[in-house]
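May I ask for a sample protein chain and its fold as tokens?
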Amino acid sequence: MTAALPPPFTAAVTAAAVLGCLAYLAAATRLRARGDAWPYGRDALFCAGGAVLVAGVAEPWGAAPPFTAHMLTHLCVGMAAPLLLVLGRPLTLVLRTAPVPVRRRLVALTRSRWATVWALLPVAALLDFGGLWLLYRTPLLSVSHHSPWLNSLVHVHILLAGLLFSFGLLALDPVRHQPGPGLRAAVLLAGGAAHAVLAKSLYAAGPPGTSFATADLHLASQVMYYGGDAVELALAAVVAFQWYRAEGRALRRERRAGRPGAHGAAAATRS
């Protein structure tokens, strides 16, 4: 059996998610009230991320086998919720609505060397996918099953690593040294491959020190494999759209820059 998350931890995460969503909606409303544009879709995405996070820690999986239930929680907390929360662009919203002193501190933080190192995409991918390999291919999962609070710390790491990876990969908010689309695509491909290989390895053998039923292992590994694929495809779609839009902007700039030269050449020919 997996260790249940302590009720205080679940309550704290739920309260933080609800308060975060309310604060987000209040800031977005204030932004629109002063005449600035802020798409309602971002509100929906951020609140959906909060709801998925709450569902993950509440573990409403009913009669699901223990490892499958754990994997559903992992999928919600570490992949789906971070993607939705980051798509809401909360840092951009804070930078546009916070008081000037707070805004200056945040800008300084996002442009600091410390933020650059920890938001560096390969580092974020190592923390995210490397952490999963550490969890499922060492006795860490078995040890955490006997300690609800250690289990809580594992879930905190999964959430924060997922947020950092999604934040660095999507590059929607203003930070120092945004990664280029080529690096983002390569890291996503490598991370997706690491995640898929880990899922397939769990199909063959469970984490060390655990004794899950074979059917449970197979179902959990399929949840990890196909659920991870779905989230990674969504991430890839966002990266591809950003790449396409950036190339379109560059092409329009080139066309605008080329028109004066073309007119000048035509005038010289006529003269």
In short: Residues 261-271 have pLDDT under 50 and may be disordered. The first helix runs from residue 7 to 33. Residues 72 and 223 are 7 Å apart (CA to CA).
